[in-house]
Amino acid sequence: MTTDVEEPALTVDELAARAGVTVRTVRFYSTRGLLPPPVIGPRRVGHYGQEHLSRLALIEELQRQGMTLAGIERYLQQLPDGLSAHDLAIHRAVVASWAPDAAEDMGRAELERRAGRPLGAEDLDRLAAMGVIGETAEPDTYHVDLGLLRLGVRLLDVPVTHETILAARTVVVKHTRAAAHELSALFRDEVSEHDSVEAVRDLSAHMQPLVVQALLTTFQRSLNDELRKWLRDS
Question: Model's pTM, two decimal places?
């Protein structure tokens, strides 16, 4: 797990605007324990940071999956302590992989608003290399993968080349598709041909959080093992 060092700097109004929700929603989630409390600054003003934004994005994705508020509460309670905004963004990206493709065409101004920052030509090229955005027939209009946007924006400042990004994306897509195919086959074996659509959805709803966390935990441990070997051998 990584640690964010960026100090919380958003007011509740700014947080709500960046996340695309109402202030009332932010306060409601806070009272239910879905969001950590803000950092109290001068004049008793609460300040929020990237972790709060990432949690709101994860909650939004879980709602899109059809999960109830009680289910979301249970899901968040099962997450390991100390997850950074980046870790939460990865969780959201994995959760989003269970949903049908969620993409939207939007202009440059709306894309930058959703990204929460100005985007230069190099930023757009990097997002395109990651498969987050694609060109459309309209000038300054992009086809945006909403499930990957926030994670892609956070990766903009990582110092790697386009070639490495493309190679990494190919590896991830190849292996996650293979895992999804095998997991789907396992789930199909548990569902009778006489089961209703509701029964299938119920099984999927129960399995998704478990599989997501298993994938993330296994991947993080494997990556840490590989990094330790790399550092030991270098």
Answer: 0.47
Phi then psi for 105, rounded to 5 degrees?
-85, 135
How many Å apart are CA 98 and CA 176, to the nearest integer? 11
| C-alpha distances out from residue 27 to 7, 23, 42, 124, 137, Å | 20, 6, 20, 34, 41
SS3 content of the chain, % helix, strand, coil (to 5): 65, 10, 30
| Domains of the chain, first to last | 12-99+191-233 (1.10.1660.10), 103-154 (no CATH)
Determine which helix (DSSP H) or strand (DSSP E) holds 133, and give its type and residue range.
Answer: strand 133-135
d(CA 153, CA 18): 13
How far apart, in whole angstroms, are the C-alpha atoms of residue 2 and residue 91? 13
Of 4-13, 50-59, 129-138, 152-161, give the lowest mean pLDDT range: 4-13
Residue the block writes with tokens 């027939």:
137
Average pLDDT, the chain: 79
